[in-house]
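Supplementary Methods, section 5.1.

A reviewer requested that the exact input to the structure prediction be made available. We therefore reproduce it here, unchanged from the version used in the analyses.
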Amino acid sequence: MLDINTLLFTGGVSIIIALVQVCKRWVKDDALYPVLAMFFGIIINVTIGRRAGIDLTTNIYAGVIAGLLACGIYSVSGTGNLPKGR
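The structure derived from this sequence is encoded token-by-token as follows.
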């Protein structure tokens, strides 16, 4: 069954990617992009999750995972190099 944690986790990924893209205008160091993504993921999940009555620790974990997932999705889709089968 689909719960609110799953919706927060997956729904915020596209927003995180967009926010990091906006911040690329001011942040030039590539090593800071995953940190920014995790920061935005935590902020989004804590803000929405607290309104839904979800535990703070769960929101922080979901935010970190959503931020790292956003980095992974962008790095794979940004290069256009998907893994090829044998």
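Residues 19 and 40 are 8 Å apart (CA to CA). These observations are discussed further in the main text.
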